[in-house]
Write a structure and sequence with these properties.
mainly beta, 0% helix
């Protein structure tokens, strides 16, 4: 109660004895819009970091160590970083082309604010066919390090209901390689005779 009957006049705003408990918290979610690509192709990822606590998060760094078949592409989205809710990016940097360990400078994210980073990676022309997981992480002064584990579904640091295990998986397909072999089992024959051939095509 503000200015109740037993307090000095003008000395009792409602919140003069309130104590706010500050609880730092955040989520990180990494997704791909390129679930399938090819050797020598490109994959696109988005990392979203959201401040779900009730205090500012400072010295926020977002990091992503790519699988060895991926490297940061020279071709990137026009606006790779989106800041919401008063988030700021100081000392902004962009990973270098060809890098495999990525970081984008230092952020401050107020309560309910967020940072979204979208980027492209090149796939090695020598990549082996298969599905590749990846883990992105974020570190702040208030929370320490948290991550979106690419091998786990709905891990503790991701938004509820937004983290199936395969949401950042990229499957590399390899074009079919055909071989063809033609042989005969009739190396000699006679006029009016018959020759036999066998053709084998293998993928």
């Amino acid at each position: 109660t503000a200015q109740d009957a037993h307090t000095p006049i003008g000395a009792d705003p409602e919140d003069d004895e309130d104590v706010t408990i500050l609880v730092p918290a955040l989520t990180i979610d990494k997704d791909t819009s390129t679930s399938t690509t090819t050797q020598g192709g490109t994959a696109t990822y988005t990392i979203v970091v959201t401040n779900t606590g009730n205090q500012d998060l400072t010295n926020v760094t977002v990091n992503d160590t790519l699988d060895s078949i991926f490297t940061f592409s020279a071709t990137q989205p026009g606006t790779p970083i989106a800041l919401a809710g008063g988030a700021t990016n100081t000392g902004a940097t962009s990973p270098t082309t060809g890098a495999g360990t990525l970081s984008w400078g230092v952020f401050t994210i107020p309560a309910s604010g967020s940072v979204s980073i979208t980027f492209n990676v090149d796939v090695s022309a020598a990549a082996t066919a298969g599905t590749y997981d990846n883990t992105a992480s974020v570190t702040t002064t208030e929370t320490g390090a948290v991550d979106d584990d690419g091998t786990a579904a709905q891990d503790p640091d991701t938004p509820t209901g937004a983290d199936p295990e395969d949401d950042e998986d990229v499957t590399i397909t390899v074009p079919a390689t055909l071989t063809i072999d033609k042989d005969t089992s009739t190396s000699t024959t006679t006029p009016g005779g018959t020759a036999t051939y066998t053709i084998v095509v293998t993928n």
